[in-house]
Design a protein that fits this description.
The protein is of the alpha+beta class. It has one domain (8-201): Endonuclease/exonuclease/phosphatase (Deoxyribonuclease I, Chain A, 4-Layer Sandwich), CATH 3.60.10. Helices cover 15% and strands 30% of the residues. The strands form four sheets. Strands 3, 4, 5, 6, 7, 8, 9 and 12 form an eight-stranded mixed sheet that branches. The longest helix is centred in the middle third of the chain and has 22 residues, at 89-110. The two termini are 27 Å apart.
């Protein structure tokens, strides 16, 4: 079966991360465009830290439908737990505050009805303080929709966080570090750009899964570790579907 034809383009943040890890979007130019000038469409939000880390990448996509809707999408790769989960928690708190600030800024600049989609590797789980207290995310759709002051985010990965598997394994313990979050403008039943929450899932193709006792990913390696060309990543990818009304 032939794959559907695509016209892919990339938005890439060349960050100062010590390991050379960047954040980027690949998107179908037939469905979205990044309006010119790019200084009004693409933003690299620095997460303040003594050592360089990845920026939060914000792209204000515009749909190619007649409505030409603005869709603000944030790509995240928050500071790791290297050195200890609790010792490094402050860095992820800063990342959460940065995300929360620019979520609110999008609504101020582009209007309160602007849909916002947040994704990435947060190096924390949905219940951790960085996401709940600082990024203002919650498991409750109703709370997100009814919020009148600070804009909230609905974290769609809470149901999976309670499952026995995760997107990442540390010491053979599953963690749900990779997440999708949406604001209320993607959560209402009549949203022009609407998330389909029940489609959020960890993608585990059999070829990606370690055949041992624990169903963790088969890593590709690199960055000082042996390279396994049969491997993929130390994280499983996550997927979900989003629809536009027209």
């Amino acid at each position: 079966m032939l794959a559907a034809p695509r016209s892919y383009e990339v938005v890439h943040a060349d960050t100062g991360d010590a390991r050379g890890i960047d954040v980027a979007f690949i998107y179908d130019a037939a469905l979205f465009k990044v309006p010119e000038p790019l200084k009004y469409s693409v933003f690299f939000h620095v997460v303040m830290r003594r050592l360089a880390t990845r920026e939060i990448v914000q792209v204000n996509f515009q749909t190619t439908t007649a409505a030409a809707r603005t869709w603000a999408v944030f790509g995240n790769h928050w500071p790791s737990r290297s050195g200890g989960q609790f010792e490094s928690a402050g860095y992820r708190a800063i990342a959460g505050e940065t995300l929360g600030f620019f979520h609110q800024r999008v609504l101020e600049v582009h209007g309160p009805e602007t849909p916002v989609f947040v994704m990435g590797d947060f190096n924390d789980e949905p219940f951790d303080i960085s996401l709940v207290l600082h990024a203002l995310s919650t498991r409750q759709r109703a709370k997100v929709i009814s919020a009148r002051e600070n804009p909230l985010l609905w974290n769609l990965m809470w149901p999976i966080a309670g499952a026995p598997d995760g997107s990442f394994y540390f010491d053979n313990q599953p963690n749900m570090l990779d997440q999708f979050l949406i604001n209320k403008n993607m959560a209402t039943s009549d949203a022009p750009i609407k998330a389909n929450p029940t489609t959020a899932q960890i993608l585990k193709e059999p070829v990606m899964v370690n055949p041992g006792l624990y169903p963790k990913p088969i890593p590709f390696g690199g960055m000082g570790k042996p390279v396994n060309q049969e491997g993929f990543s130390d994280h499983f990818p996550i997927t979900m579907s989003v629809t536009e009304v027209d």
